[in-house]
Amino acid sequence: MTTMREVADRAGVSIATVSFVLNDTKPVTPATRERIETAMAELGFRRNAMARALASRRSHLLALAYPALEHKLGSTGMEFVTGAAAAAREMEYHLVLWPVSNDATELGELVADGLADGVLLMEVLLDDPRIEVLQRAGLPFSLIGRTADPDALDYVDIDFDQTMTIALDHLQELGHQRIALLQEGPLQRLLQSYGPKRRTRQAFRRMTRHRGLDVVVLDCPPTVGGGRQAVTRLVAEHPDLTAIMVQNEHAAAGVVSGLQSVGVAVPRDMSVLSFLTSPDMAMMSDPELTMLRAPGTALGDLGVRRLIDLVEAKPRPTEPAAPQLIPCELVAGETTAAAPSR
Amino acid sequence: MTTMREVADRAGVSIATVSFVLNDTKPVTPATRERIETAMAELGFRRNAMARALASRRSHLLALAYPALEHKLGSTGMEFVTGAAAAAREMEYHLVLWPVSNDATELGELVADGLADGVLLMEVLLDDPRIEVLQRAGLPFSLIGRTADPDALDYVDIDFDQTMTIALDHLQELGHQRIALLQEGPLQRLLQSYGPKRRTRQAFRRMTRHRGLDVVVLDCPPTVGGGRQAVTRLVAEHPDLTAIMVQNEHAAAGVVSGLQSVGVAVPRDMSVLSFLTSPDMAMMSDPELTMLRAPGTALGDLGVRRLIDLVEAKPRPTEPAAPQLIPCELVAGETTAAAPSR
């Protein structure tokens, strides 16, 4: 392994100067820094991040625990991951991918290794076994998403009520009174208490009742075929529906093509609004879906910054910071229009 | 910070025994290990992964450099990342996400930090500026993908020739003689030398010439609308085409719906074969696409294992290991069938 002395000799400076550059302990002229860094590169000197980590008692590694097995992270999920990784880099931390099941055992093993300064949880369940593992380990952690009772936790999440308000306002302004909510189901055992589905359904039922709207709520598999079949039955059984809110991005394109295949024109006869998705998925439908865009990048970014606040807080806060909720943004596509007059 | 003595006292064992558990240096009875690990958890003792890394001169961190900005990593790209992260975990390494541009500057800064034992490059360009940065830093690295002249590099990649052979055999067995290749384009400046597009096009031209097939090669934007428009023009200008190979997964669903909208039934009148994609994307089309499935998980896994071999090799090998190429797998969907007899 190359030593600091070798770097110093090659750069024609003192070891102390090399150390100033390595540890940013004192200002060094750009020219000198340039000479030293060139010498390091030429000698293959490896700045000892580990030693610095040991000194600071911090690894500057943040673990992103994501259950890749239970839930495919498609384009929409990838926006959360990319937002988190970019924020970590900007804050001079590194995001480590921990592909672990929602089941807590694997996470426990990784936490015991003590490598990460903190953990960011994604795909949070209403009753998430991972929380207790992290609490017992005493490791700082934040959630993107939340449990059924999250008051004691540090979390950021989608503002489902605000998002539903935006969605219903949009449809009501267009004159829609009879609206269906089509979600993903049946869910695998582990995901049965998946928060976003439950919260969206509850907000939909509560708000539509309050607004005096007629509603239907149903599930279908997360496939284009599933969406086609579901919507074909739906329009047969509920001929007076004028709008469908789809929280099932893999089925949404099938909802649109299924409607068209049974002679229901989108959006002339039926409006389709894709709830909680990303542009990539909206573009997979023809015509392109009007959507409530998931704030993936923003939540990934926010989750990491809050986790870093926790990691660096001295002393460790006894209360979590106030949660931050971000609504989805309405992005106009070509699948919503004025309700047909009957 | 909790000390080993505190852990030993609480667990009622000697410091040496705690150290055996920490460093796996000597066998310890499950019961004792359990007591010690409970004591660590209760005291919030953090096994010092940093100290061990320093001792072993290895961080056990592998960096995955992926240019999230240039290229959206959708479901297909995510399979590479997940396969790599899972293999790293199995080998007791950790995969760190480095979202850096194909442009080399950012990568240089990260490499200089010396945190990672090695780097895995994805989305490799035929002339990739990141290679020189890694070579100058003397850091072990492997590629998933390859440059125009990869002989001196350690890489795994898709076997484009073998994949094209499988694709053309499939279409020829069905009697197709006039075949189009629809790829993604125009590409952003940085991606203009993106390997997979060039290699696929070259293999397609070479092999179809050799087999005496009539071909058309064209590009369209990576959107459903782009696929629709391109295919509408295509069938108007080339009415005798019977099959379209699509290497543009975001346009593929539009190719199918576009054909149907102009009265060309899929697969009865026209076969559509999606080249280099994943089940998630194949399912976004209706009917579901027959595809050449990208070996994402396998290549992610293989890339990481080869990188770890490099990292742990003593002495550092002077020659790269033989490259490994994996073909895509033909997965039957509902969009290819016997060529119509004219």
Largest sheet of chain A: 6 strands, parallel
Which blocks of ≥5 consecutive residues of chain A have pLDDT under 50?
none
**Assembly state of the chains shown:** homodimer
Q: Would you tell me the overall average pLDDT of chain A? A: 88
CATH class of the largest domain in chain A: Alpha Beta
Greatest chain-chain contact: A-B, 57 and 57 residues
What labels describe this entry?
homodimer; 342 residues; alpha/beta; Rossmann fold; 3 domains; 6-stranded parallel beta sheet; 6-stranded mixed beta sheet; 13 helices; 12 strands; DNA-binding transcriptional regulator, LacI/PurR family (chains A, B); DNA-binding (chains A, B); LacI/GalR-like_sensor (chains A, B)
What does this structure look like?
Chains A, B: GO terms for molecular function: DNA-binding transcription factor activity; transcription cis-regulatory region binding. Chains A, B: Keywords: DNA-binding, Transcription, Transcription regulation. Chains A, B: InterPro entries: HTH_LacI (IPR000843), LacI/GalR-like_sensor (IPR046335), Lambda_DNA-bd_dom_sf (IPR010982), Peripla_BP_I (IPR028082). Chains A, B: It comes from Microlunatus soli. The structure is a homodimer of 342-residue chains. Chain A has three domains: 53 residues, lambda repressor-like DNA-binding domains (434 Repressor (Amino-terminal Domain)), CATH 1.10.260; 129 residues, Response regulator (Rossmann fold, 3-Layer(aba) Sandwich), CATH 3.40.50.2300; 135 residues, Response regulator (Rossmann fold), CATH 3.40.50. Helix content of chain A is 44%, strand content 17%. In chain A, the strands form two sheets. In chain A, strands 2-1-3-4-5-11 form a six-stranded parallel beta sheet, sandwiched between helices. A six-stranded mixed beta sheet of chain A has the order 7-6-8-9-10-12, with helices on both faces. Chain A starts with a helix and ends in an 11-residue tail after the last strand. In chain A, helix 5 packs parallel to helix 13 and helix 6 packs parallel to helix 7. The first copy, chain A, is an alpha/beta fold and 342 residues long. Strand 2 of chain A pairs antiparallel with strand 2 of chain B, so a sheet runs across the interface.
